TrEMBL record:
This is Xylanolytic transcriptional activator regulatory domain-containing protein. SMART domains: Fungal_trans. One of its GO terms (molecular function) is DNA binding. Keywords: Nucleus. Residues 597-652 are annotated as: Disordered. Pfam families: Fungal_trans.
Amino acid sequence: MSSIKQVQDLQSQIAELTQVNSQLRTKLPEKDALDVERTDMKRRHSGAPVAIAPALHRAPKPRLNNFAHVRNNIQRHAEDLFDIPYKVRSKHARQSSSQVPELPSRADFAHLSRAYLDCIHGWHPILHWPTFQSEVDEVYTKRTLERSPPEWIGLFFAVLACASLQLDIQIDHHLNTPGRGLVYFDIASKALTPWPEDFTLSHAQSALLLSIYAAESNMKSLGSIWLASAVRIAQELQIHVAVDALSPLEDEARRRLWWAIYSRDRTMALETNKPALIHELDCEIPLPSALEDRYIQSQGVFRSQASPAPSTGSLAVIQITRMYAGILQTLRSSVIHHQALQNHDEQFRSSMALLPESYQPGSNAIFEAAALPTVFTILTARFHLYRRNLTIISHPAERAEALDRCVTVAKDTAKYVSRALHNTSRLEAAKSWHARVAPIASNTVCLHLWRCILILCLRGEYDAALMCLHLSSTIGHTRKINSACGKHIAFFVDGLLDRQRKIPDQSQRPEHDEELLAYASADAQGSIEHSWVWTGANASSKTSPQLSPCSITRRQGHDETMHDVLPLRGSFNSLDPKETPWNEWGRIESTIRQLMEESRPRTAQTPTYYLPPHNPVKRVQLAPDDRLPPKPSTSSTPTPSSASRISIANII
């Protein structure tokens, strides 16, 4: 037992030293920090002494005694001119009894709070839970919200809204009524608006939680607006600036809130291809502590020396997202050169080195599903960076390299999923795979798996694709966007199977198939700036869903091998989103296994769509159907296209 305690103490010391190192790095501008890293690498190779770049110097300010009257005068005469630090916030008017929402039952809150702690709080620890729980207990003692401030009411229902994201898995079915989370979301929104003149931390906390709920519910624009509100409120409160005259509890609360907003801003900027809201130089506040809430109190920070090193999942995500600023800057280019990719690869390796040994790609140590979002933070950034060169603007060699790099990331993802499934701790192994996956379900995880599955299927890495699909199918309809990912995957693999049967040789060089690359590039086509399929499309009108995707993606004068490529059949756009929840993961798995089986080398086997030459009648009858694009969803009967008539004539 003594050796175990020694190891735990060493782990705790390593975690603290890592945090101190990260805090020192945050005091450097981004450019200086990169210079330090590169200079240090050169020193290690050359043996030369390291030259540390100068940091921002902030001299401590002396304390002024007997200056209270001066502060009072400045505060009194600064009204309507400028805001002062430590401003006493005015009390807001209480809501009338008719406006006060009904308090949920205590049992409902218990279930929801458990879901919040399991799925949200670990990655966004913006609430000091003992304090929040104490305030909730007071409210339930009074059995009413009438005397509660509007911003606290908004925070309370924002917590319930985020907790309801996991209702299907974490909560009893009697609570799983349609729109329960949306009801909480609306109550919180009404409680917070109209905005007051003076903000509190509760306003920023509520705005961040509402942005998380909206984004995870696939209300992307609304989530973006709430995130922007959280950023601006935090800046109004100046929580991004280090302040000395604060209690340990308040200081830690400000740090955790700011860095949670920061990491969310960076993640959403990368996922949505939108500009980041926070400037990198505006992050002077030190990184938050990795301690659990119970060790942080207003009197100070307390922790038992014998306690094991706490989980640093959220802190690790913050440290990783700090390199997103450079990635976002690089992604502004239409094509990324090889040297820039190598520079970012060095950053990825440095970030990965900060994580525990079990997080490393080549490790065989125990790896739990709860660690997947952390490593996905790096893998997602790598995938976005490498995918940029899949564009048709890139040279064929660059496109082939980009595809290879994306496949490498996708295969690494599959390895992590496999380790989480098979090589986990005994305690986690006692849980079902569904229970282990539920707390990590998020839009970011769903989208990353979706991109990986498309690329893996395109390249023919079907075993790895099935492993990623196993995690996606387990997440199921926990996230609305995951069903949309599944529909798109079904469309893609159906088309791949159809393409493989008709043109077997085409699948050997997928980087030359412009249409397949357009589909496999996934949400890269959602950017006006960097997509390539919309070039020449009419921006003033929506693209008709009846048009074949080939009519958009195929270009004259580029990739001439595309002239005889057939359009893929089927489209998930024809499905009615109001129908019963989509659940065809099993069919996708079956199709991928068909692709796997039919892609194996055959010995002198004739493709199924070729018919014997002695039966020309049937050949004429079957040829048009094979080449026809998918039928429109409208009731009108389509007429054969000119391409179809020409193909019939050629066959005759």
